[in-house]
Amino acid sequence: MGSKKRLVTALILFAAVFVLGVAGFKVLGGTEWTLMDAVYMTVITVATIGYGEVHDLGAQPEARVFAVVYIIICLGTIAFAVSSITAFVVEGELRHLLGRRKMEKAIAKLSGHYIVCGSDETAQTVVRELLQTKKPFVVVDPSKERVDKMLELGLILWVQGDPAEDDVLEKAGIGRARGLLCSLATDEANLFVLVTAKGLNPTLRVVAKGIDVRSHAKMRKAGADSVISPTFIGGMRMVSEMIRPATTTFLDLMLRERDRVLRFDEVTIPAGSPLAGKTVGEADFEAKTGALFVARRRGGKKDFDFNPGKTAVLETGDVLVFITTPEMLAEIEKIAGGTVPEPIPAV
Q: What is the DSSP letter of 58?
């Protein structure tokens, strides 16, 4: 029996025993006992206080027998009620308190993580992808019920509260975060969170959901690095299914394969990297990690070099794009001399 159900049972049982005591003393006391006398006798018996009797029970043997039996029943009921209340408080509140403190310690250890604001279907898709690709992240949402539903997806660190509040984002480690994803119900809410987050961490990369296309420009002015339109993405998916079904199927299989998590992912060559100055052939990513090197964006430029030749020279600031698994990506980051994101702490 759960502690909550046990507590309800104890309260109902206690009320029944109290009513039994009042009725018993009133009936056995006869006309000499008023209802208030019966209530008083029931209270001092249940409470085991030991005040004087209203009427002498010695003159009424049947009342004395009832009192003896009733005292035994009361002791058992009180013991059950006290143990139920203790179990409810200790098992519930203590578990919540310890779980919350453990969660806070785990979040405090994060660095270079992502913060997901919201818990709608879009946010759930984001969380599934972060879990599959083993990226550290924290979910922030005002509703405990919605957070509990999201916890069904897997191991998730979370903070309950309004993501537009400074202290809530600070609890989520906004100062150490790599990026923030806004997926709240309205564009206004996403914009407000965006402004708050950028004020706390100006270098933070922010990707926001923009429901109304007219709000996209405002979000970018407010500091959003990217604004995603669900309707645009949905339309692109529909036309892709129509004109390039084989390619769409390939990408779906890559995203949904259970045995291996294959993704297009990227690594930036940091300053002082041993890869700087080497050719693609010398780096030999496929032989060393198994990842497929597909494109490069030169540092500071927008265009990509697709399938660069083995003689192409890698430079500091280059962004390298791979088809890779999370494990392969971690190996590439080690080779590049970058910082490997820490795994999600156990909760």
A: G
**Letter string b/e over residues 325-345, b meaning 16 or more CB atoms within 10 A of that residue's CB:** bbebbbbbbebbeeeebeebb
**Are 129 and 163 found together in one domain?**
yes
Instruction: Give the DSSP letter string of 191-247.
Output: HHHHHHHHHH-TT-EEEEE-SSGGGHHHHHHHT-SEEE-HHHHHHHHHHHHHH-HHH
Domain of 101, CATH number, reads 1.10.287.70
Into how many domains does the chain fold? 3
DSSP one-letter code for 248 = H
Give the HSE-up count for residue 236: Cα atoms under 13 Å, Cβ half-sphere: 6
Whole-angstrom distance, CA of residue 261 vs CA of residue 165: 35
Span 285-304, mean pLDDT?
A: 88
Quote the radius of gyration of the chain (alpha carbons, Å).
33
Residues 6+ apart with CB under 8 A from 62: 28
| pLDDT tens column, 57-86 | 656 677 777 778 877 888 888 787 777 777
Question: Are residues 208 and 141 both part of a single domain?
Answer: yes
pLDDT tens digits along 112-145: 999 999 999 899 999 998 998 889 999 999 988 8
Instruction: Quickly state the pLDDT bin for 96 (edges 50, 70, 90).
Output: low
For residue 163, the surrounding DSSP H or E stretch is: none
Nearest to 212 by CA among 232, 198, 238: 232
| Helices vs. strands in the chain: H and E counts, helices first | 14, 10
